[in-house]
Specification:
Elements lengths: L4 E6 L7 E4 L10 E6 L2 E11 L14 E2 L8 H13 L4 H7 L16 E6 L1 H4 L11 H12 L3 E2 H7 L3 H10 L3 E6 L18 H11 L6 E7 L5 H13 L5 E5 L6 H11 L5 E4 L5 H13 L4 E4 L11 E6 L17 H12 L2 E6 L4 H8 L9 E5 L11 E6 L11 H13 L2 E5 L8 E4 L16 E3 L4 E3 L6 E3 L12 E4 L3 H11 L5 E4 L9 H10 L5 E4 L12 E7 L12 H13 L10 E6 L5 H7 L3 H15 L6 E9 L2 H18 L3 E7 L5 E2 L2 E10 L2 H17 L7 E6 L5
Parallel strand pairs: 9-14, 9-15, 10-12, 10-13, 11-12, 13-14, 16-26, 17-24, 17-25, 23-24, 25-26
Antiparallel strand pairs: 1-2, 1-4, 3-4, 3-5, 6-7, 6-8, 18-22, 19-20, 20-21, 27-30, 27-31, 28-30, 29-30
Helix pairs in contact: 4-6, 7-8, 19-20
The chain binds adenosine-5'-diphosphate and zinc ion (2 copies).
Length: 737
Amino acid sequence: MPKPILQIALDVPLNRLFDYLSGGLHVLVGQRVLVPFGQRNQIGIVMGSADVSEHPLEKLKSIKQAFTDELPIDEEALGLIKFSAEYYQYPLGQALLSALPARLRQIAPAVSRKQFAYSLTDLGCSSAIEQIPKRQLLKRHVFAALQENEVITEADLDAISNSARKAAKLLVAEGWAIAKQVQAIQSLMELPPVDVPELNDEQAHAVKQIVQDLEVFKAWLLHGITGSGKTEVYIRLMQHILVQNNAQILVLVPEINLTPQLETRFRSRFAGVPLVTLHSNLSESERLHHWQLAQSGAAKIIIGTRLSVFTPLPNLKLIIIDEEHDSSYKQQDSMRYHARDLAVIRAKRLNIPVVLGSATPALESWQNATGNQNKANKYNLLSLNQRAVSAAKLPVIDCIDTTKVNLQLGLTPQLITALKLRLARKEQSLLFINRRGYSPVLLCSACHWVAPCMRCSARLVVHLGQRKLRCHHCGHEQNIPKQCPSCGNADLHPTGHGTQRLEQTLAQLLPAARIARVDRDSISRKNALVEILDQVHNQEIDILVGTQMLAKGHDFPNLTLVGVIDTDSALYSPDFRASERLFAQLMQVAGRAGRADKAGQVIIQTQFPDHALFNALRRQDYASYANALLLERQAMQFPPASFIALLRAEANNYAPVQQFLTFAVQLAQNITKSVMVYGPIRPQMERLKGLERGQLLLQANTRADLQRLLKALVMQLDAHALSKKIRWTLDIDPLEL
Ligand code: ADP
Ligand code: ZN
Ligand code: ZN
């Protein structure tokens, strides 16, 4: 780098780069370096160089070290992060450093452990298992695996046992096997062969359309009902891409829980193609290793959750976003980015195709695919309207009016009968309730006191199993009071249903049923979810009770009944996205019923069976409901009919919050007239974790108007004295108000 002054991004909350001298070290843009900053040393990333600095040269410090054993972050990835930091009004250095694996943020070279694959030597091939003493079981096991497979990886060994690597090393020491360093962590063991289905007409059409234009940016919205074979379409597209030299494919999934099944499916279809996963369940060293395999180009298929959208991928040729509507793609703290939106931007910058798949697309995407956008922004719509397995029928959906029947412990007779029928037929049922805990309210029957959280504007949830009251917002926990703190009455009632109570109710009504509960409390232990899902697959569970965790992606062939308990609060919620989300959720849960050869039934308990949402759901008609919601959004001028940002502020008391936000209103109105400002108002949850909250809603007709305002606004707010005393954040394209 010929220019003497390096511009370096640091992990500090200031939106600027810092000038350093190279100190004679030869560094590249994107390289990790160590620099003195204040009293300490910090890791930074070189963003560029210059001939002059705004500071006098003699005041500049020199970088201390450059980590030259690592590949620099390439320009394309840097560019995306830069775009993102600007768009979401977040300090570039912080955006950049938080996009890296933790190991790359530490002040040390990021050597990642080498990976080995094992195979038999000639000596090993001519040896027999009987030569290994019987009690060395594991060694025998590993030897047998080596006899069956030409090569096995450490991942394969781990699958055999925790100590299988040791056994393999013993075989190497004895000359029976050799270890070779390998590039990718990938299973080289042969997976059982799978049937490759013949595409149906809709799938074939989708694939044909997309592969016609693989060399340019095009955004495809693959709208396909659950079980319509979207994943099969992804696989065919990936095959087309992978024949190109070195091509890489990024597959985004909303949740860690969904990676294993996709991984297995891809591995069985792409034998020998290096594949890595990137998500927060990996150990730090695994994550670094996978990331480096992606960065070096060695990994060809990268399956990752939202943060992986920033991974440097030198030969990226296709991006797939599964369940593109899922709100998990939006980061809810620090830089509040939306991984789907950034993925589309990335594809555009790279001039490659991007495929967004969903049974219930986000209204933003639906509008992009069906509305009157200018050509440049328009998505291309592809639909899969049939379930791929021809025998699999769509479930029948019934809404039962809970005001017209006698409920037994909160359940309608129709649902109880249906559950009994499934038990008799040895089929499985799923009951969906979006509330964990025993019951959402502890109520005094005499004075109507309800147990509140002292730190939040929220009620405490009864967790009867642990005999505790818990706040689901701040985590506060306390004992259940023996009598009403307000009037002394001893008759306190848990009121309303949560997952725990539903589980208990079912055990009471159907004593023979084997019941499992899936919610955040029951699966907090690692692998707990996997174990429950295994039990379901092994027919050891008759009824699953759970929250939306269960709604996503899991495939249970013997499940024929889905019951939905009490989702009415979302029908008339003040959150403008509540009905969109509920519809998506219910379509997802409904999609769990009757996947294989057995027809499914869905029973929804509601006080409003004639609500438009349920009418559309009964017809499984996403399109008409989405169009109706779009009209509503248009009338209300909510996204996607407008572009919004939320300025949130919080402090120990409300006065400075109000003062700060009022100042922001004046600023905004001075800066522009083309953005509407609403507020300051208090959000529905006025107090959270002991802090008083307030917010402003900024609303514009174009992204550009909003962006111009935000840029100027943030600079001036940063300079305001109060900005250091209160906490404030900006959420651009917020999902929740
Ligand atoms: P989606 O991703 O839309 O939910 P999947 O791709 O998982 O759907 O497909 C659902 C099921 O149908 C899977 O078991 C898959 O193997 C099977 N499948 C997909 N396409 C076909 C096809 N063309 N013919 C037969 N079975 C198919
Ligand atoms: Zn009372
Ligand atoms: Zn609380």
